[in-house]
Amino acid sequence: MQRRMSGCFAAIALAVLAMALPARAEVVADRDYVAIVPAQVTDNPAKTEVLEFFSYGCPHCADFDPLVSKWGKALPSDVVFKRVPISFGRPQWASLARLYYALEASGELTKLDAAVFRALHQENKRLFDDKSIIAWVSAQGVDEAKFTAAYNSFGVLSQAKRADQMAHAYKIKGVPALAVDGKYLVSGKDLKGYGDLLALTEQVIDKARSEKPKK
User: Fold this and answer.
1) Which of 26, 29, 71, 96 is the most buried (most CB within 10 A)?
2) pLDDT in tens, the chain (215 residues)
3) Looking at domain 29-210, what is its CATH homologous superfamily?
């Protein structure tokens, strides 16, 4: 009886210890993330910023988009999710970056964001130059003159250029890529899918949050 009671108490102790331990292991540098050196300034230091570097032209980004879009909308209020369309110096991807910012500027991004991925990767539309992009957007019921003005505007051109500058500063080698608070590039090497990538990103977000000055 004494041995059974001892075993029972040991089991209870182990259960209590398990509840006291963190649910997830600490993230490890160069395995789960790479430090961004120098760290980049974010738009709002009071928030934890998550950037998704992507391109409409990337098939992996197309697969990732439904998951990351839903995930980004469910993040806590102190976390800001932003997308950065980049080109890696490819003229076709540069046009697609301008497409993203022009849709945003003209108020059509919510309506056509997923449709761009679908047009490129399921419908095999070749939206790689100004003429084909403007014609496709117009065919979606968007005012052609309004969109064309946004697409060719100084603001959109500047945003697309700035996006590529950010990709260089963040040392982005491929897309999709997630960066946290200007400090960490998520880089899990043994991930089995995009769900794992997002779960790991949440851990890196927790790390960045814990490092912010206490109010």
Assistant:
1) 96
2) 444 434 444 444 334 333 433 445 799 999 999 999 999 999 999 999 999 999 999 999 999 999 999 999 999 999 999 999 999 999 999 999 999 999 999 999 999 999 999 999 999 999 999 999 999 999 999 999 999 999 999 999 999 999 999 999 999 999 999 999 999 999 987 888 999 999 999 999 999 999 998 86
3) Glutaredoxin (3.40.30.10)
Query: pTM for the whole thing?
Result: 0.87
User: Is the CA virtual torsion 77, 41, 98, 142 positive or negative?
Assistant: positive
Q: How many CA atoms lie within 13 A of 160 on its CB side?
A: 28
Instruction: Parse the chain into domains and list their residue ranges.
Output: 29-210
